[in-house]
Amino acid sequence: MKQIDNTNPPVTDRRLIQAASLSSAGFLAAILGNWLIPQISDGVKLADYALGPLRLDMNGFYRIVLLAVMLTFLLGGVRARLDSRRRPGYVRQAPFRFVLGLALLLYDILGTKLQLTPQPFFPGPAQILESFLMEGSYIGKNLLYSLRLFGAGFIAGILLGVVTGVLIGWFPKVRYWAYPVLKISGVIPAVAWMPFALTLFPTPFAAAVFLLVITSWFPVASQTAFGIQSVSRVHLEAARTLGGGTAFQVFRVAIPSASPQIFTGITTACASSFTCLVIAEMMGQPGGLGYYINVVKVWSAYYKVFAAILLMAVLFSLILAVIGVLRDYVLRWQKGVIK
Questions:
Q1: Over the Cα atoms of the chain, what is R_g?
Q2: 293 vs 282: CA distance, rounded Å
Q3: Are 258 and 169 in contact (CB under 8 A)?
Q4: pLDDT, tens only, 174-202
């Protein structure tokens, strides 16, 4: 009986070139559309800004950003050419990149060239990027404030969550007393603690760090405890037979075995902590992207609001990417299990 091969066929260089061409075609259309289609609506004022040695208006800056994204996708094709494992994913995402470029072209025409979208609530993409030309340094300061606040609260929450989860998962007496507290406190939204945090802590920054710690702590602690309790008894018995004490079993057997669950909790905590970060910044912080949104929306500068939201999306994606790289490195011994 002939065996059927269900493995995917290798991606040829021709298909890779086609995927790279398709990936860049949509963004090339967006660049040409922004360049060739005139500004029909008179509701847009074109001002020049200094960007290093260049002087650009918002359309010129928008085309540079589109070109940078297009070149990034082309470099991704080069990486896929050198690494055969990346080829299927690169080819599979090519239609999405093409449609994304066309969507930006359509949005640019409707939002900037014609301004048929409700104004000023839905500005065009070039207007959104103009915010970085107008006050890029101010946006950068708020971005650094958000990173400092998020890093302090998120990292502290992860460390506290891992320690709590290991104690709950390994020691029955600790589980008896601490697990009910974890369940009760975990269902309370972190923002509900804000009035108490502002009273108990001397600065708004410390209060926000406390909220981020609470937000990160619950998912990490619960997933860590579940992972510790799910460790195979066979592995623990083998470690005990070989003379491994409690510390050896915890740090060399239990925690490595629970690492997939720990990283699941960290990923969940990242999303909830980022949401808490923005809310905390919008409710009493002297800086941050949430604070920036509060300031600019007072003046109905919605293009700046969208710029901050865009920056948040990029920042959150980069943080998740860093967590993914760290997870892949730590779990390299489980390659093929965790995707």
A1: 25
A2: 8
A3: yes
A4: 999 988 888 888 778 887 888 888 888 88
